UniProtKB/TrEMBL annotation, chains A, B:
It is a multi-pass membrane protein. It comes from Rubroshorea leprosula. It comes from the Eukaryota. The chain crosses the membrane at residues 7-30, 50-70, 82-103, 129-149. The keyword Ribosomal protein does not apply. This is CASP-like protein. It holds the Pfam family CASP_dom. Homodimer and heterodimers. Belongs to the Casparian strip membrane proteins (CASP) family. It is found in: Cell membrane. GO terms for cellular component: plasma membrane.
Length: 163, 163
């Protein structure tokens, strides 16, 4: 039973690792160019500080997830992992929320602020960013399941920790 | 000792409630107007879907925090509160991250995308939004401390839950 639990946790972590590393690769390799008045403009993720933040957060989460795969559940660090898992979920949530907010402006613009949508000009860039954001959205969900799983002794009344 | 713990939790919840409700009030009452070519434009939070999302998230967190204040720690719902506290922390983190991403564009613009900063035109609006965002930033921090506090039996080895 304990082996099965360990296997389930490892599968979840590998899923999260797959999502975050794919999100980074797709985001970093996204670029497209457009011509305005015979001048060529190239669009890439690093043009937006928010997309840079997204990539940094996904990289931290990837590194952490990879590291934790090698920590035994019997290790002294095991209780710390529960807390670091929550911190990672928060970081991933922050990164995807910020990136989605900017992507929404890129897609629809904001007429009140005079910000025009850019996706009509650079559709290839927008498509790739969308895929990266879908993967970046999956990662905190997987991590949230991991949180629930490691915390089930707390909220399962049968295992309830008495204060 | 248990009474002291309960008092500490209540103080944290009241702090979070103060931060979220103030953030809502300040954000909702933020507006400013500017004239462009003799046409008057009014700027308000609801012009941005992201700021609307921020207000909705703060409202959900306020309602939840108020409700939980009346739940006894001995109630059967008490273990559920631990999980809902984490969900609330995630929601608050998502709301503030998205709002900060948009505020950054409002403040500095993005020359690559052709989005001009708007804070020079509507400084009063930007100042109030900044105060709202500072409060909105404090709320998930308070909630994270609450999470750590309710989870300390899990990561404190003396109280460690054996799997």
């Amino acid at each position: 039973m304990t082996k099965l639990k360990r296997l389930f946790t490892i599968i979840l972590r590998l899923l999260a690792l797959g999502a975050t590393t794919s999100a980074i690769i797709i985001m970093v390799t996204s670029h497209d160019s457009t011509e305005v008045l015979n001048l060529k403009f190239t669009v890439k993720y690093s043009n937006s500080p928010t997309f840079k933040y997204f990539v940094i957060v996904e990289a931290i989460a990837s590194g952490y997830t990879l590291m934790v795969l090698f920590i035994s559940p019997k290790s002294v660090f095991s209780p710390l992992v529960v807390v670091l898992d929550i911190v990672t979920t928060l970081l991933l949530t922050s990164g995807i929320s910020a990136a989605l907010a900017i992507a929404e402006v890129g897609k629809k613009g904001n007429s009140h602020a005079g910000w025009f949508p850019i996706c009509d000009q650079v559709p290839k860039f927008c498509d790739r960013v969308s895929v990266s954001l879908i993967l970046g959205f999956a990662a905190p969900i997987v991590y949230f399941v991991l949180n629930l799983y490691s915390l089930h002794p707390v909220f399962n009344p049968l295992f309830a920790v008495k204060p």
